[in-house]
Write a structure and sequence with these properties.
- With about 260 residues, the protein is of the alpha/beta class.
- The chain has one domain: Alanine racemase (TIM Barrel, Alpha-Beta Barrel).
- Strand 5, helix 6 and strand 6 form a beta-alpha-beta unit.
- Helix 3 runs parallel beside helix 4 and helix 4 crosses helix 5.
- It is globular and about 50 Å long.
- The structure holds pyridoxal-5'-phosphate (PLP).
Length: about 260
Amino acid sequence: MASGTQDANGTTLKQRYLDVKSRIAAAAVRAGRRPEEVMLVVVSKSGSVDQIRELVQLGQADFAENRVQQLLQRVAQVDEWRARRAELGGQAPPVRWHMIGSLQRNKVKKAVECVRLVHSVDSLRLAEELQAASVRREAPTEVLVEVNVSGEGSKHGVAPGAARHLVAQIETMVNVRARGLMCMAPLEGGVAAARPTFERCRELFEDIRHSGMGGERFDILSMGMSADYEVAVECGANLVRVGGAVIGPPQVTEEPEEA
Ligand SMILES: *Cc1c(COP(=O)(O)O)cnc(C)c1O
């Protein structure tokens, strides 16, 4: 979609982006926090590369994808665009990528090369895979432990009771660093079901943090998507992952990841 083009709802990408930003800020203030304490990660999985570029020019730096293949493609496309802009003497604002989908073992190596944060670590095996793949990185790969708070079988994530143990195991790894927790609201039940889930995750996060596990840098609580990011911020999220509310109607269709 071209810049400034309205979609079926009669809004532009810029309007939706600014609306989400201001709603996050208002929710933060309601919760007695400063707006800058909440990071917005735009989930670009259903968006176009044009939209990503437009958002970068609006000052958005953090983007998330849930499939490694599309992540790698987009990293390359956006890097090329930034390099071209820099050559022309223009500004090339920084872009950081987040991996939020389940990570297949054979794709770990490629993913760690280009991401700032992996939100979806839910097993010791995956953490070990990340450790092995990160040996050549200058800095440790930063990860969140994904918790299946609501206990839905269809979801990824460790049981709340196992999260602390996984964080402790990651603590022993030199090249992986646990930065916090990630969770999703139940698929059903809307905002009413989201709130207790988010509150429970927040408690778990504080428990782990106050036990000193994960060290000082265990400080990211990633929760909230388009339907519930304001509730998540009220419940203590300091990172929200918002796709549709910014992107609008999908620009690309999601395909299952190749094996
Ligand atoms: C797709 C996705 C999001 C964003 O969802 P929207 O409803 O489009 O905001 C957030 N987190 C994860 C893990 C996702 O897969």
